[in-house]
TrEMBL record:
Matching InterPro entries: AAA+_ATPase, ABC_transporter-like_ATP-bd, ABC_transporter_ATP-binding, P-loop_NTPase
Family of the protein in this entry: Belongs to the ABC transporter superfamily.
Keyword Nucleotide-binding attributed: yes
Alphabetical keyword list: ATP-binding, Nucleotide-binding, Transport
Pfam families, sorted: ABC_tran
UniProt name for this protein: ABC transporter ATP-binding protein
SUPFAM superfamilies hit by this protein: P-loop containing nucleoside triphosphate hydrolases (SSF52540)
SMART domains: AAA
Record-annotated ABC transporter domain positions: 6-234
Keyword Hydrolase part of the UniProt annotation: no
GO molecular function: ATP binding; ATP hydrolysis activity
Length: 303
């Protein structure tokens, strides 16, 4: 089992009398992808800045790669790649010139690394164009390449898909997943767009108003919070009742019924009963997405 590369206990941060992060505790396994999820202003970016040693905590303990960001922040940043919402690139320089410049700063002598990364993010054909001519999404891709130049152990990404089109989002997230699997890089992704990270992360941390509401794998979160299941089934069933085989349902549209079940174990018997009566062309769970869980848990916290 992988070791914890990040440990956080009782983390608090107060800025100008306002509590931004409130008693947050979690750990991150080395080589995993963790999604730090919540709306804008929930404290996600502040947590990233605390982990990388850019700002000091008001209280609590942080260990990153076995070191304290408060006293060893520079060492942590040497072994980390960081992408913020601002690109931190030189606008008057080309993509290639930017990567060559930062390669020298990071002590990366082989230009093949820059070539490899620009190709991976679909920017090789634009390498000789200046950053000022790029769209927001293109700048974000070059920023990601820059963050990976020195082969960091940890990658901190703050809203990495902002400005990317659907193709770019798919490319970037797919590359990050492969990066973890092949090189064992640990990735922390802050995002307010929950559906983009579904299926990408090993662990999800739900943040709201600076409070860690929930944390765990998708399976763990589902086990703790999914109490009833809504299932849309495309079927030829035509009956006037509102219950079939003991399961209540409603008609959503022609040939589509929504059944309310107590657990996933009810799906197979329901489908079997339907197939004895008529055809079934599709079955879709409706209330088990990341966004569903976030609002469900958020509602529970606020009640």
């Amino acid at each position: 089992m992988a070791n914890d590369i990040i440990k956080v206990e009782g983390l608090c941060k107060e800025i100008k009398g306002k509590k931004i992060v409130k008693n947050v505790s979690f750990s991150v396994k080395e080589g995993s992808i963790t999604g730090l999820l919540g709306p804008n202003g929930s404290g996600k970016t502040t947590i990233i800045r605390l982990l990388s040693g850019v700002i000091e905590p008001s209280s609590g303990d942080i260990t990153v790669m076995g070191q304290n960001p408060l006293t060893n922040g520079e060492e942590i940043r040497k072994n980390s790649g960081i992408v913020t919402e601002t690109t931190s690139l030189y606008e008057e320089m080309t993509a290639w010139e930017n990567l060559m410049f930062f390669s020298k700063i990071y002590g990366v002598r082989d230009s093949k690394r820059s070539e490899e990364l620009l190709k991976a993010f679909g920017m090789w054909e634009h390498k000789d164009s200046t950053i000022s001519t790029f769209s927001t999404g293109m700048k974000k891709r070059v920023s990601l390449a820059k963050a990976l130049l020195q082969k960091p152990r940890i990658l901190f990404l703050d809203e990495p898909t902002n400005g990317l089109d659907p193709e770019g989002i798919h490319l970037v997230l797919g590359y990050l997943k492969a990066l973890c699997e092949k090189e064992g890089v640990t990735v922390i992704i802050c995002s307010h767009v929950l559906q983009q990270l579904e299926g990408i992360c090993d662990t999800y941390l739900f943040i709201k108003h600076g409070v860690l509401m929930e944390g765990g794998s998708m399976e763990e979160i589902e086990k703790r919070h999914l109490r009833n299941i809504s299932v849309d089934i495309e079927t030829g069933l035509t009956v006037e009742e509102t219950v079939f085989a003991g399961y209540p349902y409603q008609t959503i549209r022609k040939n589509t019924l929504r059944f309310e079940l107590k657990s996933k174990e009810d799906i197979s018997p329901l489908l079997a009963a339907l197939l004895e009566r008529t055809w079934v062309h599709g079955c879709t769970l409706k209330n088990n997405t990341l966004e569903d869980y976030y609002f469900l848990i958020g509602g529970e916290i606020n009640e």
